[in-house]
Design a protein that fits this description.
six-stranded mixed sheet, 2 domains, Rossmann fold
Length: about 300
């Protein structure tokens, strides 16, 4: 096991930023952490890394309890905050050497060379950080987070502000890193998580509202409600369809309908029975597969 949180709660004044959050992340997972702005993503990451104390609950990292005064767990974590805290007047190698010194690393020059190669900084390594593009600054941040060879890498909005080419480069870099490490990637960009991660956790108003594999999301298994596409040969009045028990909403497009069912209910048998009883020809009846963005909207537009 890499990370476990138990009933984590965090208050800022009267605002409950996190509310009894429980999650387990296994070794080797590449997890996308999604939520609207202010949902509690960064707060939870800071608590996991030990930068912020929880008001209630416990965090365990590789079997070591966070916040006990022992700092050994920090060697297991590499952390890239949302606002990459670089020193613009330092050269890349100079900055990485200082970072390596915090961990008392041996063979520092060899380790710096490994990080420069891994993060693709070879052509820029003799430059000052201030002269780098946003994409290369993110690479420096990743090199710093990885310099001590942690088993867990936590990335808070690592692709914010990157152009499409830089975005793809950082995505590929994260994929490569995840082959050997547990990676948590915080983002509010759905396409980012779908492109990179194999598991997604969605948080809203301090609570986890969904947790599952990307394949589960695509199959609709993380939806709060089922949406079914039905096509009838005959015209139907919306009110008549809404008489089907368990339907919450209907939307028409020609003779095709999108039917939204109550949470936890498979509405398809009821729709089939409705067609039989009303002597309707049912041309199509299938569950609508949704992307991560549509599921995200369903789970975060209302209070969990």
């Amino acid at each position: 096991m890499s990370i476990e949180t138990r009933n984590i709660t965090k208050l800022f004044g009267k605002q409950r930023a996190l509310d009894q959050v429980n999650l387990t992340i296994q070794k080797g997972e590449l997890v996308g952490f999604l939520g609207p702005n202010g949902a509690g993503k960064s707060t939870l990451m800071k608590i996991v890394t030990g930068y912020l104390p929880a008001d209630e609950g416990e965090v365990w990292v590789n079997g070591k309890k966070v916040g006990t005064g022992q700092l050994e767990y920090k060697r297991d974590i590499g952390y890239l905050p949302e606002h990459n805290p670089l020193y613009p007047d330092l050269y890349i190698r100079e900055y990485l050497k200082i970072s390596a010194g915090f961990y008392g690393l041996k063979n520092v020059n060899h380790r710096i060379a490994e990080m420069i190669e891994l993060t693709g900084l070879g052509d820029e390594q003799h430059k000052k950080i201030r002269s780098l593009s946003k994409g290369y600054r993110q690479r420096v941040g990743l090199a710093q987070a990885l310099i001590h060879n942690p088993s867990i890498l936590i990335l808070d909005e690592p692709t914010t502000g990157l152009d499409p080419n830089q975005l793809e480069e950082i995505r590929n870099l994260i994929r490569n890193i995840s082959r050997e490490k547990t990676v948590i990637l915080s983002s509010h960009i759905m396409q980012e998580v779908e492109a990179v991660c194999n598991r997604v956790i969605i948080i809203n108003k301090g609570k986890i509202v969904a947790d599952g594999g990307i394949s589960e999301v695509r199959s609709g298994n993380l939806q709060k409600m089922q949406i079914v596409v039905a096509e009838f040969l005959q015209e139907i009045e919306p009110g008549k369809l809404l008489s089907v028990k368990g339907l919450r909403n209907v939307a028409q497009n020609g003779k095709t309908w999108e039917l939204e069912a109550e949470a936890g209910l498979d509405i398809r048998p009821a729709i089939f029975e409705f067609a039989v009883q009303n002597q309707l020809t049912l041309l199509t009846l299938q569950q609508k597969k949704q992307n991560l963005e549509s599921v995200f909207h369903q789970l975060t537009q209302k209070s969990p």
